[in-house]
Structures are given as structure tokens and as C-alpha cells.
Design brief:
2 domains, 8 helices, about 210 residues, 8 strands, two-stranded antiparallel ribbon, TIM Barrel, alpha/beta, about 15% strand
């Protein structure tokens, strides 16, 4: 199954995405005071449920920059996570020290203490791990064991695409025949992304679970 999902959307952006036909939206209210995050998320829960759409919410900003949203990379308050989860969202992204983009060498790693506390309070709520690129496999597997059901991997796909496209051009293949045709020029990058996605699906244990 494929979902057309809005990532790190503003409150207004979520409505625009829904009007455009998106089947899933994420409202990133992590930069608001918790009371305002709750208020806006509650209204979006009402609207998305009425339309049969899924809604992802966030507590505790994810580090780095994604879709114009800049986060400091903080650990979420588990009690605030429960407040948002209890509103009826489909899934919840909680900051646990993860960041968007490449991780620095001095990165302290994921806070499993925070993740465990969030999972204990939110129960069966599917948790989301943003910034999946560069997180060691053992941390990924432990996060999954603690309730993470969706892992976002974007930077790694982009890097795979860039590397494959660079090799194609450096080999001069764009100068051979109609190698400049975008369908040929971009094909190696597209295949590289597919290979990366397949690798991640196998690592995450999501193969064969579509229904």
C-alpha cells in the first residue's frame, strides 16, 4: 500500500494537503507550547477522522532541518506524549535525541529511557522515529522493540540517488547516444533509491506485512 503523506506540516499546511488529496498528514506542533499543540492537534483529529485520513502528531522537536522546520533535537516529555496520544491521533512522533540529516560524530545516541517511558504511557500507540539515516542497526532494532512502528529515512535515499547519478555522468554515459534523456539519466538514481528502500524494509522487518 502507498500513502501520500505530508511530513512536518504546519497547521494550515495540513488543510492544504488534505484538500489536495493527501491520504495522510503530519502536524508538527512541537514548536508550540503544549496547550496550543493539543488544541490544534485535537481539531485536526476531528477533521481527519471525518475524512478517513491518518494523522501523525509530534512532541519534542526533532533535531536538524526538515521541510523548513528547524528543531533543536530534544527529548519529549512522556506525559505530554500521552496527552497528544489520548486525543486519538493515528501515530505519534516523539523526540528521543534523533535528528534529521547526517548525525555528527559526537552524537549521544537515542534516549531509550525516554522512548520506553513514552511507550509505557501511550500503550499501543504506533510511535514514529524520524531521522532514520545513520542510526546504527542495533539502535533501530531496539527502538522497534520499544514500540516504533514507522521509521522515516530520507537523507540516505537522497545520498544513494546522488551517488548513482554522479557515477552515470562521470562515466560519460550522458554523452552516449541519448544518454541525456532524463528517463535514462535519472534511472540509476531511481534504482539506487529502490535498493536502499528494500534494504531498509528488510532491516525494519516490514517485508510481507502489507494488507
Amino acid at each position: 500500500p502507498v500513502a501520500l503523506h505530508l511530513d512536518h506540516g504546519s497547521y494550515e499546511g495540513c488543510y492544504k494537503a488534505m484538500a489536495a488529496g493527501f491520504s495522510s498528514v503530519m502536524f508538527d506542533g512541537s514548536h508550540y507550547p503544549i496547550a496550543e499543540n493539543i488544541e490544534k492537534t485535537k481539531e485536526l483529529v476531528r477533521v481527519t477522522k471525518g475524512k478517513g485520513l491518518s494523522l501523525e502528531a509530534e512532541v519534542g522537536s526533532i533535531g536538524g532541518e526538515e521541510d523548513g522546520v528547524i528543531g533543536a533535537g530534544e527529548c519529549a516529555d512522556p506525559k505530554e506524549c500521552k496527552m497528544i496520544a489520548d486525543l486519538g491521533v493515528t501515530m505519534l512522533a516523539a523526540g528521543i535525541g534523533n535528528i534529521h540529516g547526517k548525525y555528527p560524530e559526537n552524537w549521544a545516541g537515542l534516549s531509550f529511557e525516554t522512548l520506553d517511558a513514552v511507550q509505557q504511557l501511550t500503550g499501543e500507540m504506533p510511535l514514529v522515529l524520524h531521522g532514520g539515516t545513520g542510526i546504527p542497526e542495533d539502535m533501530i532494532k531496539k527502538a522497534i522493540s520499544l514500540g516504533v512502528s514507522k521509521i522515516n529515512v530520507n537523507t540516505e535515499c537522497q545520498l544513494s540517488f546522488a551517488e548513482a547519478t554522479r557515477k552515470y555522468i562521470e562515466a560519460g554515459k550522458d554523452l552516449e547516444g541519448k544518454g541525456f534523456d532524463p528517463r535514462k539519466l535519472l534511472a540509476p538514481g531511481a534504482e539506487a533509491i529502490k535498493a536502499t528502500v528494500k534494504e531498509k524494509m528488510e532491516l525494519f522487518g516490514s517485508v510481507g506485512k502489507a494488507n
